[in-house]
Amino acid sequence: MSESAPELTSPPWHEPLWAHMAQAIETDRVAHGLLVCGPPGVGKRRFASRVVAALLCRERVPSGDGCGQCPTCRQRIADTHPDISRLVPEERGKLIKVEQVRSFSQRLQLTPQYSTGRIGWIEPAEDLSASAANSLLKTLEEPPPDCHIVLVTDRVSALMATVRSRSQLWRVPPPDPDTAQRWLDGNGIDTSQLDADSLRAPFAAVERGDRDYPALVENWDADLANAIRGREDAANVSERLSAPPRDLFLDWLYRRAGAMLALALEAAETGMDPAETTPERRDLPESLARIAIRLDPVVFQPWCARVADTARLARTNADWQLVVESLFLSLKSCVKRRRTP
Ligand SMILES: [Zn+2]
């Protein structure tokens, strides 16, 4: 599964379509063949990945999305999920061959590892040769139980009518330029060179973008650790943390606060000794995990609630740097050490 940019926030122009899809998934009425189409750059792959994530997860979150945490979600994100089979051209620019379709169809017949069933991913679907498309028809018509075949295409008109008619069409619309600009800005992607046409294909800008997300997160983690330890004052930290990309920052902060609180609770319940334990967590860097096991969860919990309020203030005209500063000022009083056993 190609998760081209898993850390991006959800594109708002997908939401109406997603609401329909989430409802269909929730009520178990998703067609077996899903044809995700739309113009280039609108985020079709992103939408299709979201569908697959939701179909394979058994602990979906209220938005209908996959949780991202359970074992199946982790396997999908790591690209090692055993129930996902991909059908793509062997080389870029070449057609998908009929032999490839045969082995793809056979894989879909195998018993899935998980009860959520199998996923077949075909991309780009317009690259199916005529014989390959013909060979796929039987599988599309009578797919194995609990199997979903997701076809992604920029050019639905280039697909054989027989393939189209056996799949349910999900057309991802282009955004209006203002919406796209806000979303790109929020994700830290430079829009200064983009005209209205380019803004209607924002994912093209994402692919070109030179944003270095891991480096951003590393800096934020260091700032958060320093702020909690009182090694730097709130004003300095806030000046850096209030710089764009705001949406990504909030997403990161929300996840860190939640993970730290979970670890603080676990440490308090199990009586972990901070002097002896260095917990290894997938969702926290070591520096923050070391801090989290020392936190008193009762005192830290209200700060986590303030993080959620801060996310709401991001949508208002409030002075963002002041909002962040006040959040980090209040962090000091929240960071009390729990009494160790
Ligand atoms: Zn999950």
TrEMBL record:
<protein>
    <recommendedName>
        <fullName>DNA-directed DNA polymerase</fullName>
        <ecNumber>2.7.7.7</ecNumber>
    </recommendedName>
</protein>
<dbReference type="InterPro" id="IPR027417">
    <property type="entry name" value="P-loop_NTPase"/>
</dbReference>
<keyword id="KW-0548">Nucleotidyltransferase</keyword>
<keyword id="KW-0808">Transferase</keyword>
<dbReference type="Pfam" id="PF13177">
    <property type="entry name" value="DNA_pol3_delta2"/>
</dbReference>
<keyword id="KW-0239">DNA-directed DNA polymerase</keyword>
<dbReference type="InterPro" id="IPR050238">
    <property type="entry name" value="DNA_Rep/Repair_Clamp_Loader"/>
</dbReference>
